[in-house]
Amino acid sequence: MTLDADRPLDPTPLFVPAPSAVWLEIGFGGGEHLAAQATRNPGVGLIGCEPYVNGIAQLLVRIRDQKLGNVRVFADDAHRLLAALPNRSLARVFLLFPDPWPKRRHHKRRFIRPETVAIFARLLAPGGELRVATDHPALGRWALFHVLGHGDFAWPAQSAADWRKPPADWVETRYEAKAKADGSVVYYLRFFRR
Ligand SMILES: C[S@@+](CC[C@H](N)C(=O)[O-])C[C@H]1O[C@@H](n2cnc3c(N)ncnc32)[C@H](O)[C@@H]1O
Description:
Helices cover 34% and strands 22% of the residues. By secondary structure, the protein is α/β, with parallel strands linked by helices. The chain is globular, with a radius of gyration of 16 Å.
């Protein structure tokens, strides 16, 4: 899918038949999570954003082999798509293992920052979910600070088990499998649009 001179893009008509909801995955890597969610949720329209060409190719193979009709691919920087989507047009956003940019001078490159959190708040319908996973503890704290700092998101975690355990519908990503094999702890953060 492409953007028409950065004009607003209503995502619902991209899918036939009309989807019950539209979900977005940012930085899908090899696309294993996106393809599995599309298989499990055939009534949902899924958009995946990824500029990494090898990853796009891997997802396209999955779409072909699994005959997935409910996936659309934006092969570019997700910020461009976010800017073009209308208010409340998404029911779920997945941001799974975003690049941690650990050096302080690179923190401004992190995908989660006040401007993007404000955009997520604009795009998610009430009750919609922003799902973030990371194996980078400082990035996990950063995400909590910035997402909860915005005020439009609730984080219903009651205990450590709530962020240490993956959600029931979780699909392990390639990056996650490598991180766990290296002994890393994974943080699963689910924020809900008020
Ligand atoms: C650490 S990898 C994780 C990939 C995948 N989510 C996984 O868990 O296996 C981060 C991914 O985010 C993608 N990415 C980075 N910046 C992006 C952006 N602005 N828009 C879309 N994707 C982006 C990278 O190309 C990379 O594939």
